[in-house]
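Researcher: Re-running this chain for the archive, since the previous output was lost when a drive failed. Same request as before.
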Amino acid sequence: MNAKLKALLQLERLKHSLPVTIFVSLLGAAATQSNPSLLLLFVLLANLCVSWLYFTLRDLQFAPLDVSKQDKQPQNPVATGLISPKTANILLLLVGIIAIVLYALAGIKTLITGVVLLIVVFILNWRKLGLQKRFYLKTSPYHFLVNSFMCLLGSLSLNPVLNQVSLLAIGFVLFILLYASFIDQARQVVSKKTLRILNVGAVISLTLAILLAIAIFIFVALLPYWIVGLFMLLLAIMIVPQIIERRREKLKPNLDYDVFRIAVFRAAAIAMLVHFLVPLVFHLFSQ
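Model: Regenerated structure tokens:
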């Protein structure tokens, strides 16, 4: 039973997907500059369900291919036999229904956008279409399109009308995660010409993301400075010990890109949670 439960959770890719989903959803909500409500919780839970569905569908569709290369795809519990295709299909149905119900509770615009996101997720993972052959459409916790939708849904949960700051936040999520896609692919290619193209794409995406971040967090001052400071502090707590450990082992203090990326999104997710929870706690105790 424990092994099956672990395998079901493995479908979610919690280590990578949970911080990203929380961060992009709450960033979209913060961009509305509205007071949080129960609707935001509905959308956040629905987005987590869609994230689970996203990876479950991918593993189900590509299990026949992953069986032959389990050394490269050890994360697929359907391919390894830990979860049967029947169980995965039942999970898809249940999680999909829960996500739709939660989106419906948050409003009609949220429901329509959520259904569109579910359709996008199915199309991206439909093996016969072959979209996974394109690096920027491969299933990933950092998928720019899926997470941009989740950021949009976070905004719609608190305000059915998008403002300029919400659009800036969605643009930031899109470009920073598109940058991540370029970097991931650049680490795998061997062609110098392709590498140059990917590097140019990465530079352009990162530049646009930085410009949008400056607009959002400095000019608009979307988040209080103490939240930004908390993010930096959490990031340092996660990264500095690893750098010190590498120095003790007489290795270069270079930090692995994947480790750094995970730390960034974890710190960002925690900071965003604090941003919404602290006012709520003060409100409860002030009554």
